[in-house]
Amino acid sequence: MTFISLQFLVFFMVVTLWFFRLKNQNGRIWLLLIASCYFYMSFIPEYILILGGTIIVDYFAGIQIEKSEGSNRKFWLVLSIIANIGTLAVFKYYNFFIDNIHTGFLFFGKPLQLQLLKMALPIGLSFHTFQALSYTIEVYRRKQPAERNFVVYALYVMFYPQLVAGPIERPQNVIPQLKEFRPYNWDNVKEGLARMCWGFFKKVVIADRLAMVVERTFGHTAETSSAALFIGAVFYSFQIYCDFSGYSDIALGAAKVMNIRLMENFKQPYLSGSLSEFWTRWHISLSTWFRDYLYIPLGGNRKGEWRRRVNIMVVFLLSGLWHGANWTFIIWGLLHGLFVLILVSKINTGNSAIRKIFSVLFNFIVVTFLWIFFRAENLAAAWIYIKSICSFRGGSNFITLSPAEFIFSLLVIMIMLLREKYLPRHIISQNSRFWIYLFSMVIICYFFGVFKENQFIYFQF
Amino acid sequence: MIKRFLSCFFILFGIALLYSSTSRKLMSFFKVAKDNNSWWGEFQLTKGDLLELSHLDFIHKLNTQPQNNLKEFTHSLIPAKYNLYLLGDSYIWGLNKSNFDGLTDYHSIDFYGINSFHLDTANKNALIIEISERFIRETMDHNQVTACFYDSLKGKDSENGSNNTRSAPGKDHTILDYFSSITLFNKYINQNLEFNLFTYNFMLPLFETKAAINYYLFGRASGDAILSDDENFLFLKETAVDNGPKSSFSKITSKEITTIVHNLNALDIYYESCGFSKVYLSIIPNPVTIMQPIGYNNLIPLIQNDPHLNMPVIDIYSIFKNNHDVYYLPGDTHWNNKGKQLWVDLVNKTLRN
User: Which residues from B are below 8 Å from A215, CB to CB?
Assistant: First the structure.
């Protein structure tokens, strides 16, 4: 069940209304857990077994970590990490690993017959695995008490708004909110619904419209002109932003309606003046996860300049790998790491407005070129795409959109950027204004939305 | 009090809606109940399925009139030789025995359903498996071929009253199949919800307005159809986009072709073992394959010309491709009378030989 579906709208209506009809928190968390199971099972039902298995392991590991001392404590943490990373390794990376071994042996003229796993990747596996890991690590660090109520813990991992594409939450933020009974709050409902509408708008009016161009340029690179390919790459930057941040808006809005505040995942990342700033504004829940659980434990910047550089490269390598088992993601991650190190001190200096605009534009171009690796099917395709842009060649300028729709696309991108810059919050105090806004957004999304049952891009991770 | 009543009402309404949209029985009931011209009836598919999907009725050149004026054989030109079984999809709807020459008997079998058959061994039995191009990859590109191709003709098991439906070879039932069988997770739930919530005659102006905005403002069709480059035809979007198994333009690997051919051969062996003396394959091209072929992935020629394919082929693709005529309806996924007649002629010619 994607957020952009009638099934979700009806499901959300039922769950939210029922949630507020219940007068005790125990009933509410049971309702949310059952609803989250239904939500997850509506993708591929049997994968609930995998998720359930890791939840049980982490639940008991958390309690044992809290009870134990010394090496026992470490043992339970390691067990939890192995269970989570092991699941991720089997379902996400096994085929990639086998494929590369096979290619390596083939290169040396010794073909190997290795069996590939014929299973689809459980949806959102990387997200809930990292969320579960943050729980056991925080318990191990004694920053979070082990949760004794299994339903609360299971709901922490499975809470449906952020189950399949984040934000990757921390237990300190979510678990106390799940335990506290909070009465119906009309202001939160309004804010949540307004934010959900904004998320729908970004997904169906912007992201899925730009996807038509992106699919064309990435699918027909050879016969497309440099200018059209460049437009395709720029549109992909906005497509992935509107797709993923649109998802986050819907997730945060849906949670807000039920009085639950999830962490912000985006802060106008394309207005960043450098790549390191970009990573404090893009997919914040993931970058802070890597900062807290990898970069700092590796020594961060405390062990000298060279070690800092190595740590940054390790973080970006693993961040790339987190996104997918493909060399395109690994290279994308490594290049980000490399450019973070190279460009940070060169460009983002000085305070003049022109310099700021220049650094924002320059940074956007760098990010856009790096997205090409992210979007391309393989490294060769990415390289051809970049080369074709840089060759300034002619060719087909056909990008599937009519001139009117192209201008419309630019217009909605501008509206999105300006609105998020100057009206970042979704609070509408007057009821009449709220209803007008809601009604207008529904009308705009319906009449100008592109509905293709497109999955959100980040669901695959 | 009113708020309480309303929230209870919407909870119950939502649950009922979700449940009914997963239930095949209830959906069939609603479908029958809405089959009328009143304000709450379902939109009627009278001018072409794609035209109705895209709500572009106001473009008159795309209106499609039903055509079924095929040649009929009142007297056989040749001695009756075959019982013909046609296993296929909507492309063969409307055909009957009189359209074919030299048949002792004729059975048209819809592979969406399950049908019994009793082979008359006094005559030769021929089977034609007709598949639309857009379904080939979905149904054949698996090591476990979609069971409908086997289950559609249950043969002697049915005759003996056995419930022993045959599944695709190699398909073992596991605990995981249990999950797939839970109707609560019906994969068509969104289409069913749309049908239950919005598919009413009184809602039609809303759909038409959206279609008109897209057409006049952005020059394209909305929904599941797209306009051809010359704007004289509609194509099913899934067949004309760059990716997806139904597309005529998505990349196809040699491994996929090998699997498809392997599975077709398995079907051939299965039906020959059931008593058919000849089993033919006929793939009907997507309209976009013929009318806008630039970038075509060559799925049909790759299958038909594969040296390992053991089934004889009724090759309508080559004829359509070389004749440069119009064989499809402008606002519909199906062929026109000319296309259908050409195919029937080809079947007659094949059976005569």
Answer: 241-243
- The residue written with tokens 């106001």 in the block is B58
In the structure, what pLDDT confidence band is assigned to residue B164 with cuts at 50, 70 and 90? very low
Q: What is the pLDDT of residues B99-147, one digit of tens each?
A: 887 777 777 776 655 556 667 777 788 889 899 999 888 887 665 555 5
Asked if residues A248 and A166 have their Cβ atoms less than 8 Å apart, the reply is yes
Inter-chain residue contact B7 with A20, CB threshold 8 Å: yes
* Beta strands at B103-110 and B82-88: parallel, antiparallel or unpaired: parallel
Q: Report the CATH fold assignment for B82-183+245-352.
A: Rossmann fold (3.40.50)
User: Same domain, yes or no, for A191 and A134?
Assistant: no
Q: Is A375 on the interface with B (CB under 8 A)?
A: no
Instruction: Give me the residues of A, 157-196, that contact B with CB < 8 A.
Output: none
Q: Which residues of A are catalytic?
A: 323
Domain with CATH 3.40.50 in chain B: 82-183+245-352
Q: Do A405 and B10 touch (CB under 8 A)?
A: no
Say what the pTM is: 0.83
Q: How confident is the model at residue B170 (pLDDT cuts 50, 70, 90)?
A: very low
DSSP classification of residue A91: I
Q: Does A402 touch chain B (CB under 8 A)?
A: yes
> What is the CA B183 to chain-centroid distance, rounded?
23
Determine the Cα–Cα distance for residues A421 and A269; give it in Å rounded to an integer.
11
Q: Which residue of B has its CA nearest to A401?
A: B218
Chain A contact set for B237 (CB, 8 A): 452
